[in-house]
Amino acid sequence: MTSTTPSTLYEKVLNAHIVEDLGEDLLLYIDRHLIHEVTTPQAFAGLAEKGRSVRRPDLTFGTMDHSISTRSLALDACGPQNALQLNTLAANCAQHNIQLYPVGHKNQGIVHVIGPQLGLIHPGMTVVCGDSHTATHGAFGALAFGIGTSQVEHVLASQTLKQSRGKSMLINVNGKLGLGVTAKDIILAIIGKIGHAGATGHVIEYAGQAIRDLSMEQRMTVCNMSIEAGAKAGLIAPDDKTIEYIRGREFAPSEAHWDDAVRYWKSLYTDQDAQFDSVVELDAADIEPQVTWGTNPGQVVGIKQHVPQPNSYSDAVVKESANKALKYMGLEAGQAISDISISHVFIGSCTNSRIEDLRAAAKIAALGKVAKGVTAIVVPGSVQVKEQAETEQLDVIFKQSGFEWRLPGCSMCLGMNDDILQPGDRCASTSNRNFEGRQGRGGRTHLVSPEMAAAAAITGKFTDVRTMGEH
Amino acid sequence: MTGINIVTGTVAPLDQANIDTDQIIPKQFLTGITRTGYGVNLFHDWRYQNGDKDQVDPDFSLNQPEYKGASILLTRENFGCGSSREHAPWALADFGFNCIIANSFADIFYGNSINNQLLVLTLPNVELDQLFAKVANNPKVVITVTLTAQSVKCEELEFLFDIASHHKTNLLKGLDAIGQTLEHDAQITQFEETRRSWL
Question: Do B17 and A150 touch (CB under 8 A)?
Answer without folding.
Answer: no
